[in-house]
Amino acid sequence: MITLQARQPAETTIQSYEFSAQDFIGLLRGAFEKGASVRFAAAGFSMDPFIKDGDVVTLAPLPQRLKPGQVAAAVSPANGLVIIHRVVKIARGEALLKGDNLVKPDGWVRGDALLGVVAGVERGGAPWELGITRHAALIAHLSRWNLLRAVARAGAIMLKLQNRTARTIDAPS
Q1: Contact status, residue 147 vs residue 108, Cβ threshold 8 Å
Q2: Were 51 and a residue from 2, 45, 47, 96 both cysteine, which residue would form a disulfide, CB within 3.0 to 4.6 Å?
Q3: What's the confidence (pLDDT) of residue 129?
Q4: In a domain, 37, yes or no
Q5: Are strands 56-61 and 114-123 parallel, antiparallel or unpaired?
Q6: In the 8-state DSSP scheme, what is residue 170?
């Protein structure tokens, strides 16, 4: 079951609604056919660190041309559930999707199984763009070749070393 929370624009009360996977797919397709976006809280860790469990994700209709690096919502070829993973390659009208925090790709997804794209992510009430708009193509390439985690770890180590070095340098007197 998928739980969506919604409120009317003039109201502050949030209502929760539960949907089966098939109903959720229908809701997304119906909204996208009308050109509308859908916002909901992400569940899971497959796109960590760029989309974390609990982040608010805004899905929008598919663009005319999907590109590697974009994060797409699709019907999983493995189980028929909705997945939100990065496009790492496009060929023959199909997209190869992969979660940034996963070792293996989901497999090739046919064009009719693609639902929409991530148009925005909010974390803690603030917009979060890293990995969604900025550097998306580079992240797709690193993810496809399973280098993303290694690069992220190296970057984290470098930041720690930089912070440690900055604290140990004495200010001039």
Answers
A1: no
A2: 47
A3: 74
A4: yes
A5: antiparallel
A6: P
